[in-house]
Amino acid sequence: MRALNHGGLMIEPGATARHRRAIWPIPMAACAFAVALSVPGMAQPQSFGAYIESLWPQARAGGISRTTFDSATSGLSPDAEVLSLTRRQPEYIRPLGAYIGTTVSASRISRGAQLAKTWSDTLGQVEKRFGVDRFVVLGIWAIETEFGKVPSRKDVFRSTATLAYARYRDTFFRDEFLAALHVMQEGHIPRQKMRGSWAGAMGQAQFIPSSFLKYAVDFSGDGQRDIWTTVPDVLGSIANYLAKSGWERGMPWGFEVMVPNGFDYRRSRASFAEWKRLGVKRADGQPLPERHDAVMLFPSGADGPAFLVTGNYLAIKAYNNSDAYALAVAHLADRMRGGKAIVTPWPANDLPLSRDNRIVLQRRLSELGYTVNNFQGQIDFDLRDAIRDVQAKAGWRADGNPTEQILKHVLSLPAVRR
């Protein structure tokens, strides 16, 4: 959640780790002291206050005291802004190249390299304990909160309750509201400092409440899991999140690569050794590893950069389930350690599908007989392989890129009778 996947919020995203769902347009009307939230075609049976009170039995069953519940919810009102922010996630509103270009900025590269020296001892201990590349940890810290400089301004209880009440991934955000009660009751942070993102992601690590409870660590040894002000706890917690999400010690996240003439774009999975035999080469001229498996990823289609990515790339996506986010973190990490810029130019007009359209694409591919792992708009490698198959059958270059062209094409095909 990012994870949403802020630190666990797969927003797509994100995050994890950061956060996930199907969406309807949600109109809102605001007055001086209240906001009425509704979903088209769905009755809103309760007032916001009645909805909050309806959560008390679950909170009590989970061990929350009435004192904690009342303190957290006193005077709580819906936040009209949070629903509009769900549609302004930077990973999905710009071409991928533009997003990475601004996210992996010269100032972040410079600042990250400086902080790598400042916190060298701590980062070394983090790497030893969790096995996670220090520069990837720094990359997440940079993108989430500009190395702790960007303050969280939203009330966590208000944000999560608003999203749940509006039925925007209501079960997910209801559970995050309840998890936030545990964070408060356990004394990790006072009520007035329970501030976060629009999705409830907290602190410099941007963990949603459930991610905090699962992954935050006291790396400083002072007895507190403080992802708000204690840098060692921030770095250790990010690394712990990635480690628990499958990060493998000593394995790279991946590399930009060049494919040979005549490359079979339908091919998506192989070992590094096999990719080498097929003529795939690293863009920076270095040799491919002899070990590990890797997936071929064309995030903007075959006209843009190509990458071979490993399970560690998926660990980054667990933080925020977005290829744009994961590539930005990974590339920023490489640049902070002195690596080169991405070589192949990005297509200028490669706008991603909206989340709504990604869900439409998923549902249509399922109707066509393909296995779809979720219907929340998350584009995983299995879905890209399904798109490759559709492209190949249409006589197109099978790069697995979800585009408007693919969406229009699959909508024109007859569904498979089951």
Features:
single chain, 7% strand, 5-stranded antiparallel β-sheet, Helicase, Ruva Protein, domain 3, globular, 9 strands, disordered N terminus, two-stranded antiparallel sheet
Q: What does the largest sheet look like?
A: 5 strands, antiparallel
**Spans of at least 5 consecutive residues with low confidence:** 1-6, 8-43
Shape: globular
The assigned CATH architecture of the domain at 28-87 and 152-234 is Orthogonal Bundle
Whole-angstrom Rg: 22 Å
Instruction: Specify the CATH class of the domain at 28-87 and 152-234.
Output: Mainly Alpha
If strands are numbered along the chain, what order do they take across the biggest sheet? 6-8-9-5-7
> For this structure, what is the CATH homologous superfamily of the domain at 28-87 and 152-234?
Bacterial muramidase
- Strand percentage lies at 5-15%
Number of continuous helical runs: 18
CATH topology of the domain at 28-87 and 152-234: Helicase, Ruva Protein, domain 3
Number of strands: 9
Percent helix range: 40-55%
